[in-house]
Amino acid sequence: MATTTTPTTVTTTRIDYAATLDQRSKVLILVGVLLGLFLSALDQTIVSTALPRIVADLKGIELIGWVSTSYLLASTAMVPIYGKLSDIYGRKYVLLFGITVFLLGSLLCGLAGDMTQLVFFRGLQGFGAAALTSTAFAIPADLFAPAERARYLGLFGAVFGLSSVIGPFIGGLLTDNLSWHWVFFVNLPLGIVALGFIVAKLPRLHSGLKPAIDYAGAATLLLTVIPFLLALTLDKNDYPWTSPLILGLFAISVVGLILFLLIERRAESPILPLHLFRIRTFTLTALIGVTVGVTLFAAIFFLSLYLVNVLGVSATSAGTTLIPLTLSLVVGAMVSSQIVQRTGHYKWVIVGGMAIIVGALWWLTTLTPDTSIWMVRLRMIVLGLGLGPSMPILNLAMQNAVPRTDLGAATASRQFFQQIGQVVGSAVFGAILTGVLTTTLSANLAPIQAQLPPELAARFDSSALRNGMSAESAGGEPVDPAVKIEQAIADQFAARREVISRALRDTDPAAIAALRNDPQLPAQQKAMLDMIGSLPAAAREQALSQVLARLDEAEQTARAEGRALGRQISVALKDAFTTSVTTIYWYAIWVALIGFILALFIPELPLQRSYGQDLPPMME
Q: Model pTM greater than 0.90?
């Protein structure tokens, strides 16, 4: 007689780590998570300092853009996927995997023998870094109930601020005193310490559910995101917006998006749960995240252009000049977190932060070529105070509103939308800057170029100057146009002196022929060349002295005129960059205003003090 066995389902109560873990364990776990996040944040700032030395050593300058692009593609595209996997398998396993892959990528980057290898290994680094950023912001939600969590969220802003301050310094120190390889090797000891904390103290932190993995959703998400990011980041000088490649990449991305949405509607456990968009807080915080990403990029990148090309700060020092912005961002994050912790209200902190961003961006539109560095720093501080509350408190509001089973996917999705905003802001604002800068420079330089010899005018063409005068110097130091013109004049007169000396003193036939063909030589001096061979040496020397004396006078006059023209070019260049950067900030104001208006509609939900009612049963 056959018998059948019915599988039994054991239902247990899911662990509430916020209630069961003691405070010391929570702090140790948080330290490990912050160390892992610090690794990812530090890597983005430390590598840029070493890039000139890397290119000099590995060659392949045509691939330099891909050193960051490959990292960006992998780190952005994988964020939502890791977020969902952390809900299924637990934050611990995903975080350990991410740190391990990141460290392996760091080791291989340091050992790279050419630029192609470095680009590939940077992509591997980004593949691991995505796990760090996607889970790091979700783990505090597992450890602390929303009402208690606010006080800790400011630490995450502090990590990014600290990395941006010390990253360029450490990168320069390691590159100059050891080698560029160590900007990657330095991740290894920090990563091992982080792994130790996480292995020893971090629980599994999973949702307790065991749904099927959404492989089709993951594949179509990558099909959507990677072509989209490539289309935005590829050099538009080589691949214009209307080129077949860019249009084709956008078309592939649209097809991928349609397939992704169709699959996610039917998936048992979608990578990006579409039902989250029915939660108003989630939808609004995701959209606000896009606006914050756009304005954050505009604030940092274009302000650096202004500092270098208008105020004359060296390119290598521009990072440290932005320290007031970074420190005020950290202060804004910490203070806003404490306000929410004490009051229990987050909506008006977000609204206030967005309002400060709008005001700071308007203040940045008032920049002029004569604005002092201290007034620029004051604008940075105000902007940082607005940006500070935006990231941690938006996370808190979103996490307080979504089901805990979707916490990882929701947190990663908000992070994903913010990173997409940064990439879109980079591409769109970059295109606007190029257009405005080229037009303004052409208009400003036209009357000046008319006063220059053709060969010198070509060196001050708008297409050459729109990259900034710092591009003229290998060390990143701005080059004064007046110095450049004066040096060109000095070189011309030195060459002329040499030819005249050879003709008059040595009666060199080649030099005499060159002077006869010189249209700038007066007819009287050309006539003297016909009888130069019959003159005694003393007479030739006397004639040479007279000619060189007149040449010295002419050089002094030409140098004075050159300095005046150089000052005009410098003013034209600074005016063009100032106009272009402030134009970007006018556009950024409208983006920030959209974020401000959206923030007004965020519902003010009471911060949960426990997860008791939100915990689903865990099936074993």
A: no
Cα–Cα distance, 120 to 141 (Å, whole number): 34
Contact 466, 440 (CB under 8 A): no
Separation of first and last alpha carbons in the chain: 31
Distance, CA of 539 to CA of 536 (rounded, Å): 5
pLDDT at position 590 is: 93
Contact 295, 592 (CB under 8 A): yes
Task: Give me Rg for the CA atoms of the chain.
Answer: 31
Can you read off the two tokens belonging to residue 28?
Answer: 């140790």
Tell me if 411 sits within 8 A of 94, measured CB to CB. no
Q: Which residue has the tokens 């995701």?
A: 286
Q: What is the CA 19 to chain-centroid distance, rounded? A: 39
Is pLDDT of 597 > 90?
Answer: yes
Quickly state the pLDDT bin for 467 (edges 50, 70, 90): low
The token duo for 510 is 């080649």
pLDDT at 521 over 60: yes
Q: Is the pLDDT at 618 greater than 70, yes or no?
A: no
Q: Is the dihedral of CA 414, 276, 354, 290 positive or negative?
A: positive
91: which residues sit within 8 A by CB, 6+ positions away?
A: 135, 138, 139, 142, 202, 204, 205, 206, 408
In angstroms, the Cα distances linking 98 to 131, 189, 543 are: 5, 16, 80
Closest CA to 394 of 414, 419, 420: 414
Residue 300 DSSP label? I
- Crossing angle of helices 373-401 and 280-297, rounded to 10°: 160
- In whole angstroms, what separates CA 174 from the centre of its chain? 21
What's the pLDDT score for residue 360? 93
Q: For the chain, give the number of residues.
A: 620
Average pLDDT over residues 175-188: 82
Q: State the pLDDT confidence band at 251, using cuts at 50, 70 and 90.
A: very high
Concatenated DSSP letters of 145-213: -HHHHHHHHHHHHHHHHHHHHHHHHHHHHHHHHT-TTHHHHTHHHHHHHHHHHHHHH------S--PPP
Provide the β-strand partners of residue 11.
619
3-state DSSP of 513-560 = HHHHCCCCCCHHHHHHHHCHHHCCHHHHHHHHHHHHHHHHHHHHHHHH
Higher pLDDT residue, 470 or 110? Answer: 110
Rounded distance, CA 612 to CA 16, Å? 8
Task: Give the lowest-confidence range in 37-41, 236-240, 270-274, 469-473.
Answer: 469-473
Task: Work out the percent of the chain whose per-residue pLDDT is above 90.
Answer: 10
Distances (CA, A) of 597 to 347, 349, 352, 385: 12, 14, 11, 19
- Going by C-beta distance under 8 Å and a sequence separation of 6 or more, which residues neighbour residue 600? 351
C-beta neighbour count of 54 within 10 angstroms: 24
C-beta atoms surrounding 604 within 10 Å: 12
Please state, in angstroms and as integers, the Cα–Cα distance from residue 169 to each residue in 53, 118, 160, 173, following that order.
15, 22, 15, 6
Q: Partners of 13 in the beta sheet? A: 617
Instruction: Flag whether pLDDT at 592 surpasses 80.
Output: yes
Q: Is the pLDDT of residue 376 over 60?
A: yes
The whole-angstrom separation of Cα 483 and Cα 489 is 10
Contact 404, 562 (CB under 8 A): no
**Helix-strand-coil split of the chain, %, nearest 5:** 80, 0, 20
Would you say residue 604 has pLDDT above 50?
yes
